[in-house]
Amino acid sequence: xxxxxGGATFKSFTTKAIRLARHGCANRxxxxxxxxxxxxEQFDHVIEQVGSFDPLPNQYNEKLVAFNxxxxxxxxxxGATASRPVVELLGLASFYPIHPxxxxxxxxxxxxxxxxxxxxxxxxxxxxx
Length: 129
Description:
- Belongs to the bacterial ribosomal protein bS16 family.
- The protein is of the alpha+beta class.
- The chain contains three helices and five strands; from the N terminus they run E-E-E-E-H-E-H-H.
- The protein folds into two domains: 1-97, CATH 3.30.1320.10; 99-129.
- The chain has helices at 69-77, 84-92, 100-128; strands spanning 16-24, 29-37, 48-54, 64-67, 81-82.
- A hairpin with a 4-residue loop joins strand 1 and strand 2.
């Protein structure tokens, strides 16, 4: 079989994984969502790129992600397994059920924001006195 993109040939009987491959600079990470053989390293040749993820917020405070759902569905049908970060992203895109860690992260963010707001109002009250 020839890969759709990448440059790696692969054996059809090995297990595949849909996972993140890191690109970008030292302080500016960028991830490709790729299909690879499960035992390959992160920077080895990929079979196919099925999406991308930019974890740093843009000017509108959005983290951008793009998926090729048709190809993801194809590879999952062929027996590929998705890594935990990819499952979380697919859950947020309503492809999978929302991952429990997503709920935990949202709860921690809300608690931290409430604590920061309480500290700021406390500091304002102290300054007014």
